[in-house]
DNA sequence: CCCCAGTGTGAAATCGTTCTCAACGCATGA
DNA sequence: TCATGCGTTGAGAACGATTTCACACTGGGG
């Protein structure tokens, strides 16, 4: 079917090794190079990457395992990773785990079988604790989620700081009874919850954090139930864009006026968050930077394998919008 | 580093061929199978996919070339494709072209080099005309965009029908001066424009279609300029979710009341379209079906290579929202 | 007792590259 | 004249699997 290097060699009247050199960067005479190029064009030859990888023992492939590409955070990250990879002449294998530890294990095996050059991974909480650097034949960079062991290069947001910042912001605007919805499957959710709790405590307020599955409908259900309780919160913080969607939908369904009856703030500055009424206050994550930094850490690690591991902590940007406008305390009986 | 099949064979006390058979589905005694499995576990052996692909001449890989994974349509499609692929024991190589014909060519070469089993491709208008089935060593399924030649299996929306449907809907609601913004780089944009023009003509109305680059800012700019013109349209139809974003943003910036001063309708039922005020009328595309159908066509083609090509035309669903509520004609001097 | 079919096994070829090594031609310098 | 070295080339050995082929063993039927 497809021509191989032998066909090219025959047509060019040179040996296979010479063709290989001509196509690579070996020393060949200009004359031969011309002939080989002509033969390549004539035969439509394209090198077989499997053969090349097998022989050279370099896959030029990096793995990218994320929870769900439909989460806009991961969409943007993967785009950045791919761009960087292709620019470096590498390919990307993208896998979605759906936060399922079994699929994580499956895909880690796959990466091993592909003999990837490196892996960028956003593991669930369930697997992250068991990861050991020495179990991998290639460097691993964690993204969005950090392992306690510190064995891996990592790119994360300053999750605690960002959460605390949101709490500060709400308190400053006059809110006191502030609840939080956080993802239960990732360390990121946990960290953001911790930041929220710390922030609340710092203000002498009682935290009320609830952990849920990282899906928009889960957030909507949780919010609906919560807002039906007697002691309804004045504000709710959520830990990602999907929850923002669910929470906003719940508020809408209950006909709550935002921020008068419920203030909303969260993570991920998605395109729609400033188009809804009111616009939503969010922590914007530097998504492209996540991808680029992860690739940078990976390449750095490949260059200097024994260097101490590094954690790049990126900070988010608070974008204040109308969903957290100053609370008018009139309707509350309690004093400040 | 990693153990290979030879190591396993040595440890299990059998030949390499027997190991291969034991791991595959060849006939081996239960005894040997046990030993091999033990040896695999002990050595941590994982087959080398490059070697396997080279020898077996089956890459078990399908290529997926889309314009931009950040476009929610392609996000959903790619998720569906991946799920189907992994379920069939195949991997996916995902590439983003950014609607750049050069990158399309680059990635088509890459697919050839990877010796993919099949390709799912959403090409730009610039390349789609030049595609010839015989130039590929593997089946190609076009998705979202159709080639005139009919040489390829294809999954598309009934673009003309859907566009005309939007026009009908708007006319029914009392709108007459209806403009349209369409993507210039894809046949889909062209088809939707054609459906719009046909729909307008059918109602005896004068179409005004403008073709722009498939990016949200382009739509915003175009809309801002358009709405500043003397003869401002009563309604604008757009051909995808990114344009919807741009158009809505433009209307917002101009402080236009929707639908009183400008009605809006378009394609792609993105999560936010029913959260903004007013909710946006859209044609919903069965995105998961796109991915699944494309995979189905691909597998079908692999099974029966010479069967005539098929085009699966999916129909969209009109979701009526407040952005196209009935026009009150009071403010217009012209008679209907 | 022989033949045959079926089962299980190993040796060796093969996939398409890259890479090592030896060798060639030719110019240069001793 | 001969050794040295450089630039260029080809033969052939890998890489790690699958697959073909031949063969040994078993048991059943003639």
UniProtKB/TrEMBL annotation, chains A, B:
Molecular function (Gene Ontology), one example: DNA binding
Cross-referenced Pfam families: LacI (PF00356), Peripla_BP_3 (PF13377)
Gene3D superfamilies named in the record: 3.40.50.2300, lambda repressor-like DNA-binding domains (1.10.260.40)
UniProt entry keywords in alphabetical sequence: DNA-binding, Transcription, Transcription regulation
Cross-referenced PROSITE patterns: HTH_LACI_1, HTH_LACI_2
UniProt domain HTH lacI-type: residue ranges: 3-56
PANTHER family cross-referenced by the UniProt entry: LACI-RELATED TRANSCRIPTIONAL REPRESSOR, RIBOSE OPERON REPRESSOR
Protein name: LacI family DNA-binding transcriptional regulator
């Amino acid at each position: 079917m497809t021509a191989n290097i032998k066909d090219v060699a025959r047509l060019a009247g040179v040996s296979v090794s010479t063709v290989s050199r001509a196509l690579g960067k070996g020393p060949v005479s200009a004359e031969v190079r011309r002939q080989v190029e002509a033969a390549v064009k004539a035969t439509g030859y394209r090198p077989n990457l499997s053969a090349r990888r097998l022989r050279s023992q370099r896959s030029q492939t990096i793995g990218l395992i994320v929870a769900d590409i439909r989460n806009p955070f991961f969409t943007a990250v993967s785009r950045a990773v791919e761009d960087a990879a292709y620019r470096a002449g590498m390919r990307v294998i993208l896998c979605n785990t759906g936060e399922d530890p079994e699929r994580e294990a499956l895909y880690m095996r796959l990466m091993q079988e592909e003999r990837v050059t490196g892996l960028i991974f956003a593991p669930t909480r369930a697997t992250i604790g068991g990861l050991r650097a020495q179990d991998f034949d290639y460097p691993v960079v964690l993204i969005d989620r950090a392992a306690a062991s510190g064995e891996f290069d990592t790119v994360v947001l300053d999750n605690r700081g960002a959460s605390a910042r949101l709490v500060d912001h709400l308190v400053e605007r006059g809110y006191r009874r502030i609840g939080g919805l956080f993802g239960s499957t990732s360390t990121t959710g946990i960290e953001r919850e911790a930041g929220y709790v710390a922030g609340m405590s710092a203000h002498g307020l009682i935290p009320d954090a609830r952990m849920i599955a990282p899906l928009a409908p889960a957030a909507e259900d949780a919010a609906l139930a919560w807002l039906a309780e007697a002691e309804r919160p004045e504000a709710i913080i959520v830990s990602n864009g999907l929850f923002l969607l669910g929470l906003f939908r719940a508020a809408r369904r209950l006909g709550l006026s935002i921020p008068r009856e419920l203030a909303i703030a969260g993570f991920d500055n998605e395109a729609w968050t400033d188009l809804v009424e009111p616009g939503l206050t969010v922590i914007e994550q530097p998504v492209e930077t996540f991808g680029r930094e992860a690739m940078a850490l990976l390449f750095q690690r490949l260059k200097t394998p024994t260097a101490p591991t590094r954690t790049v902590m990126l900070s988010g940007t608070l974008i204040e919008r109308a969903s957290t406008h100053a609370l008018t305390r009139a309707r509350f009986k309690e004093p400040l």
